[in-house]
Amino acid sequence: xxxxKNNCKTVVDFTLALHKSRTVNLSQMCNYSTRVGxxxxxxxxxxxQRLVHNSKISxxxxxxxxxxxLDLENCKLTLALDRTNWKFGKEDINLLVLSVCLLGSAMxxxxxxxxxxxxxxxxxRKELLDKFITEFGANKIEYLLADRExxxxxxxxxLNSNEINFIVRIKSNMLLELKGDNIAAGKLFNKITQGGxxxxxxxxxxxxxxxxxxxxxxxxxxxxxSNNLIEPNLLVIYAKRWQIECLFANLKTKGFNxxxxxxxxxxxxxxxxxxxxxxxx
Length: 281
Prior knowledge:
Elements: H1 5-21, H2 26-29, H3 41-54, H4 59-69, E1 77-88, E2 91-100, E3 107-113, H5 122-136, E4 141-146, H6 153-161, E5 166-169, E6 175-178, E7 181-184, H7 185-188, E8 198-204, E9 207-215, E10 221-226, H8 234-238, H9 242-251, H10 266-280
Parallel strand pairs: 1-4, 4-5
Antiparallel strand pairs: 1-2, 2-3, 5-10, 6-7, 8-9, 9-10
Helix pairs in contact: 1-10, 3-10
């Protein structure tokens, strides 16, 4: 991971303390350090602080390490794209995360610290996915899964141009072209019943896509589009997207309580995220 040998002990100690304390609050982590009794709590805290402030681990090095640890070097990956955000004081912390779906919980590979509290834009999504493509190649991706935030003609064109199969949930008011007529997706699928499934070949702008929908047990209409026109059941594959929600829960309240951090600077949040991801995987 490019960690200097003098810092390796601190990285290992930080990881073990994070596992035991289940929080990213550095002062609480110090109580679980393997070096308690060897050096003072103040020194342990300073070591942890310096690690978060000055970590030289790159996202590419970490992603390669995680792929090896998870034994995924020779297989295609189902990726999920989503955001997680929270507020510390008046500061908004907003991460755009690209993860691999595996073992019931997605595993983060790349992320961006966004400047605003709202949705990501197409340029930010492209920047994130370009990191993966540059390192592993687009042919490493079996499917990219994303929720209703991640739509748009430019975004779909980018995925098509890189020959990336995608399954994206869309909003009910999105217009789909069917047999030359534009119709809102919700209207097109409004007669579907709970547990049923209907598929149509549609166009969005100039792209031919497969649209498929069902109605959930909560009576909510779930509408998906994909550039794989022959996939018989998009819904089964898309269900894996829930694993990224499990990931965020595991990094937060069910795992390492990421929101306990007092760091707000982007590079420090980024460094802390790398250490949490390493500990989690």
